[in-house]
Amino acid sequence: MPAHLRPVSADCLCGTNMGQLEQPFNLLLSLLSSDRDAAEKKLKDIRRRLVIMLDCRGCTCSEDLAHEAMLRFVRRLPNMDPPLAGDPIPYLYTVAYNLYLEYVQKEFLPLPDDITEIPQPDEEAVKTKEQLHKCLDACLDRMDLNSRELVLDYYRLNKQSKIDFRKTLARGLGISANALRIRLHNIRG
């Protein structure tokens, strides 16, 4: 892993070029708290929250992006005009979010035109899927025609349309949605 993407340790900027970052880093700590220990604790908490925010967005390298966001913020801090006064957390969140957008953009780049070979699907997965379909067909063949149609109708759609269709199906059968679930459970069982 590149040094600038290494996860933050207890002293936050371990392994970076401290000659260039020591003064801005101390400035960040002074913005967080006048007590250095309390400031370091706040900094760790901010980093943890950045990681959680990135994890919630589905980022697979949230630790690295949180660290990079903090480094970028520390590098910009001395050159801000007007100087940052107040809470740096919203600014750090914005830097982390922008880094995340860069990450997503790089992760989903279009495929090059010169791709000559398309990867084949995993044979094991194909065999497993075929076995599941054979098993399903065998189970459906053992059911009477009405039960088979009911099962196929019950599992036909997805999301909200599935819910709406199941309510309509239950009304058409003259039963409640819960009674329909029980009937399907008994058919499957």
Walk me through what this model shows.
With 189 residues, the protein is mostly helical. The protein has helices at 18-32, 36-56, 62-76, 89-107, 123-142, 145-154, 159-173, 177-188. Helix 1 packs across helix 3 (62-76), helix 2 (36-56) packs across helix 3 (62-76) and helix 3 (62-76) crosses helix 4. It starts with 17 loop residues before the first helix and ends with a helix.
Topology overview:
Elements: H1 18-32, H2 36-56, H3 62-76, H4 89-107, H5 123-142, H6 145-154, H7 159-173, H8 177-188
Mean pLDDT: 81
Structural class: mainly alpha
- In helices, the fraction of residues equals 55-70%
Question: Spans with pLDDT under 50 lasting ≥5 residues?
Answer: 1-18
In whole angstroms, how far apart are the ends?
52 Å
Number of helices: 8
State the order of secondary-structure elements, H for helix, E for strand: HHHHHHHH
Summarize the structure.
The protein is mostly helical. It contains eight helices and no strands.
Entry keywords:
189 residues; mainly alpha; 8 helices; 0% strand; elongated
